[in-house]
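Quarterly update, task 2.4: zinc ion-bound model.
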Amino acid sequence: MIEHTFAPVEVAEGILRVTYPMPMKPGHVHGYLVATDEGYLLVDTGLGLGDAPWGSAGIERIAITHFHPDHVGATADAVEATGAPVLQGAIDHYQCEKVWGSDAWVPELAAWFARQGVPPEETAELLEVGSVYRQFVHFVPEARLLREGDEVAGWSVVEFPGHADGHICLLKDGVLIAGDHLLPRITPAVGLYPDSRPDPLGDFMASLERVAELAPRLALPGHGDPIDDPAGRAREIVLHHHERLAETESGLRDGPRSGYELSCTLFPGDLGAAQRRFAVAETLSHLERLVVEGRAVRGGDDGYVTYTQP
Ligand SMILES: [Zn+2]
């Protein structure tokens, strides 16, 4: 059981973990304070719930692994409290502005979900749930943009697209600050969204293979306990998605299906709007992977997308 505590816990030499509360599942999210020559580098800020005690922590830089609300949400609050500059992946910052910085995103998402077969009343509900987060996301427009191979206080920036297109991790001396790229018990969500990279699941599996190759000795995730066999965990998650791909493929046996219809087969039951939204996006990332592999065909007309077996 992980407590919600701002009291930092040392999880590796020179690395403190802070745990932020989260009103929705999984109930907490971690940030990390990394000791550097000049002070602390804070990685991820939690949701912007307005109660983050950054002032006295000695933070001199803030890095963001990805733009999801529970990681980027309190960034502006942390900047206000510390005066520290923000570093964010270049692709991630673009998507962050697109999703959280403009009102155009919500109608775009609505139209897109409708094209994926989501019934109108459910589309409205999905969007409503999504917009609950907006008030807790305080990102900053001026960030130093990071790319693969950049260095931050001796840590290498590694781009691991998949869970988010622009997800970055930091790697040094066999320690990976992993964000949501690698999680211990749950598998990171991998969804297709409008304007996302075309094959997020393919990206994710390649990024996991890369973790296996880099073979860090420890991964510090955004949720859950430290992972002491990151390569093994990465391979486990790849395997899981191979199984999910096979299930998704057999879901197309009886003719064309929309992403929404198939999500109801793969993730049955009344999930509630928030979980259904993830289920549809997750199903679509698997369908698009099957298309890339020649195991499914995307079709449909009148702007209504369906998938069939080839
Ligand atoms: Zn995330």
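Highlight for this quarter: The longest strand covers residues 28-35.
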